[in-house]
Amino acid sequence: MEQYYTLEVAGVTRQLPIMQVSDSLCIASFVILGDCEIVTRSAPLIEAKLPQVDYIITAEAKGIPLVHELCRLRNLPYYIVARKSVKPYMSKPLTDEVVSITTQKKQTLCLDGKDALLLKGKRVAVVDDVISTGESLSAIERLVEKAGGNIVARAAILAEGDAARRDDIIFLKELPLFPVE
Length: 181
What we know:
Number of helices: 4
Helix content: 10-25%
Distance between the termini: 15 Å
Shape: globular
Largest sheet: 5 strands, parallel
Oligomer: single chain
Strand content: 35-45%
């Protein structure tokens, strides 16, 4: 029988399935792709806490709707996505490797060279749907730093596990981890 965690965030309630991601750990599966209500209710709450930024960056793919809405609210004309592989259209891409809690295998995050040029000397917010181990966040930060950008904020709808105890992350709600019994 499937178990669920009841999440209440930004005035919205969702039943999140609890999924085993390793021999010792389960997580509540939070996916904002397609959930317009969660995105549009959460984004203004995060936007109000963000400092002034020139660009917002996220990793492909689950953070994209959130950064889109944050940019719309801020009247920022462009956001940046760190892709999961080098694409043929990329010019002089910057890359960094990461292993996140949800992918559990080494991934390469890539920043198109044209996006890297935009970041040089700019104030950048790194945004995702959930911050857990912080590995994806750190990989994006390294890409921004390689590009010469200045990270001024880190934000997510949810912080999971140890991330919820960090004082350098803006988030709306803590999402618990579930040890395998």
